[in-house]
Amino acid sequence: MCGIVGYTGPRKAQPILIAGLKRLEYRGYDSSGIALLTDEGLMVAKAAGKISKLEESLGGNEYNCTHGIAHTRWATHGEPSQLNAHPHTDVDGTIALVHNGIIENYRTLREFLSRQGYTIKTETDTEILVHLIRYNYKGDLTEAVRDALNQVEGTYGIAVISIYHPNQIVAARMGSPLVIGNGEGENLVASDVAAMLEHTNKVIYLEDGEVATITPDKIEITTIHNVKITPHIEEVSWTLDEIEKEGYDHFMLKEIHEQCTTLRNGMRGRLKWEEGIPILGGLNMQYDELREIERVIITACGTSWHAALIGEYLIEELARIPVEVEYASEFRYRAPIFTDNSILLAISQSGETADTLAAMREAKHHGITVLGLVNVVGSTIARETDGGVYIHAGPEIGVASTKAFTSQVLALSLVATLLGRMRHLSVQQGQEIIDSLIKIPSQLEQILENETQIKEIARQYYKADNFLYLGRGINFPVALEGALKLKEISYIHAEGYPAAEMKHGPIALIDENMPVVVIALKDPVYDKVMSNIAEVRARNGRVIAIASEGDEEIADRVNHVIYIPQTYRLLTPLLSIIPLQLLAYHIAVMRGCSVDQPRNLAKSVTVE
Ligand code: AGP
């Protein structure tokens, strides 16, 4: 997703803006640019490719100016190129604008502006917006932005500067997140807090339909209809360390290894052992409301959708409540049927995924209680739901989700146990689950200690062109997630499948060139999975098994075994996913891939 950074204050803007863009690289991008307000007017530099290309284009110059905006672009309209990169300027270079989002009616506006004599230089929707602001400009930049945005349909997070308003940044938000950083005698604006954390932890989250006028010592906010809004300053608890690599080669590896800590953080203060019950005050639901729930719809995208599938097993088995899991992008365009006493659970690490946000709004529109399982505090989904559970995974920088996934599964385990205890689960049954949860972080640590073996397996298979991942029951979604991890960071085609389904088609793919990863834990379907493994081996397939510690028989029946500690059956995904995360990571590294910022991917997809 695009990244926006703006600065206005007493210090040189250029180094602050470039450093801010680098902290947003993880969002995924294909070009970047900067606009600085110098004594000679607007200086704009743009480059396709990584931020280092932008720095090269600046040619070592450090401009003596204290006010500017910068951008990393993830192309939606118009190919990745220097011409299409942001900032975009008006016809005579008096206004510069950066944008995240999509102007849906840009063609209509383009025709309107062309009729007014404007020359449009690029294929982007963003350029239309800066000309529209110029068209509406009558001496007040904020007013011109408001008037222009009232003609716009679509989503935006924008920052605008002008030579006529030195030290002023105008920012506005509709659907694409923007946060203002309130410093000492200086202020910033950015797509997320990572870009400003080294300067301030005091932030103001802009809401949809709000416009901010930012100067070094003032922040004024109105709606796009010029209704004054009182800024609400919050303090961000994240530290700079949490967004640094801390000695790891990649953020992804750091985040895989952080999971012992993040799971402890996700449980802290939420386990009431004596009553065998999780405490989830953020749900904002009384016990009798929880008892009345008759149907749960879980909606999400990507990895979060895999966590949702695990949530289905957890809630249906522990609480005996029917659950349906929906791809958010599909759900919002179906004519979904909402029944009484249904709730919708939106799962999203970023809390900004456009499809998930729209699905949640669709349910809300039908009067359904919507809850969020979100990582980023203050994100749009978190703020628009009726309640929820913050997963406390800390900032996840690697584009491929790892610690957020296990924290989502943990949160779902807590929700399912709570719903179960509201119905038929006994105190003892609740205590059994809690006891198992408390052991998970140290068991996870044990698996991480086995990384060398996993790296060795990666070395034998990193040149494969295809992988198949198989699992049954609650480990089928784990197979899907393991396949997605490999796909998105190593670019190897990988498919997750229910183990039994392999016979109904994919078995045609099996040969000595097709590594097959099988989650074969000591559970009620173990014998069935062993039969599936035999079917693979009979066709010269090579099997990498994730197995339960103490399982002596499996070693002779597969090519490689990675053991994980035994735990409560419904909690095994918290452990069985770890070897698959490490396998994908090491294969991607051996293939020389960009692990933290895989090609074409974005950390948060805030466009449809
Ligand atoms: C997962 O590794 C991917 N980064 C992607 O599938 C992601 O899970 C999906 O885009 C949903 O993001 P969210 O959890 O922030 O909503």
C-alpha termini separation: 11 Å
Shape: globular
Tell me the helix content.
25-40%
* Number of separate helices: 18
Regions with little confidence, pLDDT below 50 for 5+ residues: none
Overall pLDDT confidence: 93
Strand content: 15-25%
Quaternary status? single chain
Order of adjacent strands in the largest pleated sheet: 3-2-4-1-10-9-11-15
Ligand kinds: 2-deoxy-2-amino glucitol-6-phosphate
Give the C-alpha Rg.
Answer: 25 Å
- Counted beta strands: 27
- Main sheet attributes: strand count, strand direction, barrel closure: 8 strands, antiparallel
Structural class: alpha/beta
Structural account:
The radius of gyration is 25 Å and the shape is globular. Helix content is 34%, strand content 23%. The longest helix is centred in the C-terminal third of the chain and has 22 residues, at 427-448. The protein starts with a strand and ends in an 18-residue tail after the last helix. With 608 residues, it is an alpha/beta fold. The mean pLDDT is 93. The structure holds 2-deoxy-2-amino glucitol-6-phosphate. The site of 2-deoxy-2-amino glucitol-6-phosphate (AGP) has 15 residues, from helix 9.
